[in-house]
Structure formats: structure tokens, C-alpha cells
Amino acid sequence: MRKTFTLSIILCLFIGTVQAQLKLPPNMFFQKLPNGLEMLVVEDHTVPMVTIEIACKNGSFTETPEFNGLSHLYEHLFFKANKDYPNQIAYHNRVNELDIDFNGTTREELVNYYFSLPKENLVGGLKFMNSAIRYPKFKKQDMLQENEIVNAEFQRKESNPYYALKDAVDRHLWGDLYSRKHVIGDHNIILTATPDKMEVIKDKYYYPNNSVLVIAGDINHEKAFAEANKVFGSWSASKFDPFQKWPVPEFKPLTKTDYFVVESDIAQVPSIMFSWHGPDTRNDVAGTFAADVFSFIVNQQASRLFESLEASGLALSTGVNYYTQKYVGPITFYVTPNPDRIQECLAEMKKQIALWDSEDYFTDKQIERAKRLLAIEQVQQNEITEEYAHTLSFWWASSSVNYYTTYQENLNKVTKADLQAYVRKYIKNKPYCAGLLINSAMSRELKPTEFFKEN
Questions:
Q1: Which domain of life is it from (predicted)?
Q2: What Å distances lie between residue 56 and 202, 217, 393, CA to CA?
Q3: Which residues are CB-contacts of 83 (< 8 A; sequence separation ≥ 6)?
Q4: 17 band by pLDDT with thresholds 50, 70 and 90
């Protein structure tokens, strides 16, 4: 009795210490099981539903070329047979019994799986998730079916002319580590995947100490933790850190600016994309906040970028984007030029980039407005509990929960000097990749290789 009491005190002290280290809103709670499984519970009693989500640090960033696309295929197979539900009929019967809406997503730095169901089915949902995450069966027949489904997703992406440009830019931007950023994967790798390859992925990454469990909705956090502990507490931790055993290689910095033309006859209008290596959450957290504020400002209709390109008639659309990642987030400047004024548009794009760090390119009022609206945007995103769960698992993988919960606080620290430093460190006078998408008829007429170049 005394031993149990002592262990309980130790566990409570441990949980309390971790909770104190995390900056969580009042309705969010954290625990970490002895096997390393991190758990977040978000109480939201608005609707009598609950979302159960589990995410693993897997995805394209773990993929060598011979595995490119298989994290995504694994995600599809998660919703197939397992030890407790040996075939698709049994699996879907249980889905119907629990009134589950399920799905999953694969990104560069995580794969997540989620069930949304009535709150009274929480325990059944946890057990159902446990069966899928711990005991999958990679049956050949299921794989043959899902190989084709995943490959069809690939083909749908390829049918979008913008995909050809994005893919070409990525190949130039990431070089021999292209597979680490190419989530959809390789046709041949997907179509020739075997159960053995799925087992390799499972044995590398699918452990509690490489996962997070998010439970969000109309639940009591103490009950949620207790039930999750009963279900997942026996899940054995790995005896290794996968990112020490199979480290993600560092992306080599670009050494030169690279211009190229991509021809596609399904492209009705031309598109231009510039991309740079940007900050990441391992090496320059402050830079990621500056990147968000900068992108927000230049994307507004009151910005100088909009006035110089869209309002002037040089472009049909423009946008600047930074994608936050743990391993090098890309910065993208994309423009749909007026087909009759491509050269003028290109020249103006370069001119604007040269001005991005100037003292008067944006005002203090624009900076404060951007920070305020980004904060409001975050609050709005959290209104839908299921989406909130997805957001938390994304940030858990690509940075930390604290990164997200202190996002507004850190946005408020961004100054004009920070924005200028961001531009100078990552964009202005830095090597980049530049792609022009154009159809063959327009290419023959305009001869873009004569003007689409660095100088």
C-alpha cells in the first residue's frame, strides 16, 4: 500500500512538473506515460463529440528514395485489417457501431490518424485506435487495392498544371534530398510496395515514445487520461531514438540561383515561382515568426507588392508563403503574370524583392495589424475542435506544443528590424530557384529562355 502511494505521489509530481513547463490554455492538459507516449486533452463541451487523434513523427522527411511515398501508403493501410479486426468488413462494422468518422493525413514531418465519434464511445474509440496503431496486418490484397488508390491520388495531382512547376522547383530546391520533401512519393515505389516494407516503417517509427495522443471534445481530462492510460500504457517503447539511429540528413544550402522553364500543354496561363531555403524551428525560431508576419503583410491588397504587380495589371495573382518546418521551411513567391506582359512582370518581381528590406516598404501600422490579424486567425482555427486536434499534432511534430500555445506572445515581439533581418538572411541576394510554367505554343512564341534568367 505504501509503495503504491509513493509511486502515485512521484507520478503526480512528474506530471505537475511537465505541466508547469508547458504553457497551456486553461482547457488543455498534458500527461506523458512511462512508455513515452505524450497525451494532450482539450476540453470543449460545446458539442457532445470527441476526436481521438494519434500522430507519429514519420512522413516524407524519413524517406530515402526507395521508400518515397510509403509513409502515405502506410497511412491508408492503417484503416485496414489488424489483429482484432482481421478484414475490412470487420473493421467497417466496428466503425459503424461506434459512429466513427475517420481519416488520416501524411505530411513531411508527421503522419496523423483520427476518429471523431460521440463522447459516450470514447473508450471504444481508444481501444479501436489501439488495435490499428499497434497491431496492423499488411495483407497483400489490401496493399494491391491501396497501391492503386494512392497512385490515383498521385495522378490527380499530376493533372493540375501547377504540380509540374511545384515539382520542378522542389527538385531544384532540395537536390538529392528531394524525396525527404516529396510527400506523395514515387509511382514505381508505391506500385511495387510490399508488406515487408510496411513492417520496416512500423519497426522504425511506430512507438509510443515517437507519438502523441490528442483527445479533444466533450470529455473530462482526468477521465480521458485514465482511460488512455489503461489502453495505451502497455504499448512498449522503442529501445532507440529513430532520429539518432536513422538521422535526417541536413539539407544543403543553395550555392547558386537557378532559372528554368517547365512546359505543360495543360497550363492555360503562365506561372512563375521563386523559392528559397527559409528558417526552421531547430535553428531560428524567431525567424519563423518574422516570416509569418512578413508574408501576411505583403499578401494584403494594401501592400506595395500588390500595388506594383496586381493593381498595375502586370499580374493576375501574387502570393508569398513561408511553410514552418523543423527541417528547413521553404519560402515561396508565386505569381500568375499577365500573359502579355511576362517580361515586365518578371522585372518588377525582382525589383520588389530588392526593396523588401527597405525602411519604408511597410509601416508600423501594417506590422501591428498583421500581428493582430494573425492572432485572430489562430483563435478562429481553434473554434473547430477536430481541426484544433490536427493543428496541435502538427506543431508537436514540427516544433513543439509550446511553439503553438505561445504563438501570439511571440508574434507580438516581432519588429520592423526583425522583418528586415529575415529578408536579408534568407531572401535578398541569396541563391534561389526560379521556375516558369508555360505551354508549348506560348513558349515557341515568346522564347522564354532568352529572358527568364537571373540578369
A1: Bacteria
A2: 10, 21, 9
A3: 131, 135, 137
A4: very low
| Domain spanning 258-450: CATH 3.30.830.10 | yes
**How far apart are alpha carbons 215 and 391 in whole angstroms?**
12
Round the average pLDDT of the chain to a whole number and report it.
93
Reading the block at residue 94, the C-alpha cell is 466496428
Measured CA to CA in angstroms, residue 404 lies from 21, 147, 285, 295, 410 at distances of 14, 35, 12, 18, 10
pLDDT in tens, 415-445: 999 999 999 999 999 999 999 999 999 999 9
Residue of 99, 16, 70, 27 whose CA lies nearest to 392: 27
Query: Using CA atoms, how far apart are residues 436 and 291, in angstroms rounded to an integer?
Result: 24
For residues 333 and 320, the answer to whether their CB atoms sit within 8 Å is yes
* Identical topology for domains 28-245 and 258-450: yes
Domain limits, the chain: 28-245, 258-450
CATH number of 28-245: 3.30.830.10
**DSSP letter assigned to residue 249:** P
User: How many angstroms separate the CA atoms of 15 and 221, rounded?
Assistant: 13
pLDDT of 16 higher than 60? no
Given this model, what pLDDT does residue 455 score? 80
Does 158 score more than 90 pLDDT? Answer: no
Dihedral (Cα; 315, 316, 317, 318), 10-degree rounding: 0
Mean pLDDT in residue range 92-116: 97
The pTM score is 0.93
Q: Which residues of 198-211 are buried (b: 16+ CB within 10 A; e: fewer)?
A: beebbebbbbbbbb
Segment 277-301, tens digit of pLDDT: 999 999 999 999 999 999 999 999 9
